[in-house]
Design brief:
Length: 245
């Protein structure tokens, strides 16, 4: 049951598996299968419970551990959402939002494209299998019932959260540079030809150039996403180690 609680909380926040269009019964069944596979090969725990409330305390601790591990996995997807918002703002596509069925929320078109790209890379590289291995390793580094907060853990989470903006800026740097060049060119034209309506004339050019640069830089964005996705097992191991210290 304790293993099921940890893996259930992880699946509740893990990208793709926590999508609203995936039935809750499927997630529960998947969590039960993983728990039945992982629990027999775990080292024997020496925790002895004498009542109901100590067991509830263990369940809460394991649920918090699973939610934290799931949050670490979602950081790169938060960065993709932010990158999509930046691209949409730069090329003038922030107003027409689309419905993302995986998150059950309104999102910009570039953000939805990047989100689906991340999901395809996650499943295409079989990283969900490595996530199961990382989940098993979390019990080697963090046995049941010993998780606790610490200053190094809080500092690591803050650094990872701050890294969302860095990742988003790295992914959207080509689009931002192209938008800046278009703005600079039309600013010079506006000074040379005062009768020109710079805003209306530059809007279509900025959108066209931004879409071209966004399409040409998707391979670069895929490399960034792939590199951070491959680091997820190591990140889970590091967070588990910090929770145990």
């Amino acid at each position: 049951m304790l293993v099921f609680v940890r893996v259930g909380a992880l699946l509740a926040t893990l990208p793709f598996f926590s999508a609203s269009n995936i039935p809750v019964r499927v997630r529960l069944a998947l969590g039960a299968v993983v728990a039945f596979l992982v629990a027999p090969i775990l080292p024997v725990s020496g925790i002895a419970q004498s009542g109901f409330w100590p067991l509830v305390r263990l369940l809460v601790i394991e649920a918090m551990v699973g939610l934290l591990l799931g949050f670490i996995c979602r950081i790169i997807f938060f960065a993709m959402d932010l990158a999509g918002s930046i691209v949409a703002t730069e090329i003038g596509l922030s107003l027409p939002s689309t419905f993302n069925p995986l998150t059950a929320s309104q999102n910009t078109a570039p953000g939805t494209i990047l989100y689906w790209m991340g999901i395809m890379l996650l499943l295409g590289f079989d990283l969900h299998h490595w996530m199961v291995i990382a989940f098993y390793r979390s019990y080697e580094l963090l046995p049941v019932g010993i998780a606790h907060g610490s200053a190094p853990l809080l500092q690591d989470i803050i650094q990872r959260s701050a890294g969302i903006f860095q990742i988003a800026l790295q992914m959207t740097a080509p689009v931002m540079a192209a938008s800046f060049v278009v703005t600079l060119v039309f600013s010079i034209l506006g000074r040379a030809v005062p009768q020109m309506n710079v805003f209306s004339e530059s809007y279509a050019v900025r959108t066209l150039v931004g879409l071209m640069v966004f399409g040409l830089s998707t391979t670069l964005m895929a490399h960034y996403i792939s590199n951070y996705l491959h680091k997820l097992p190591e990140d889970l191991a590091r967070v588990s180690r910090l929770l145990a210290t």
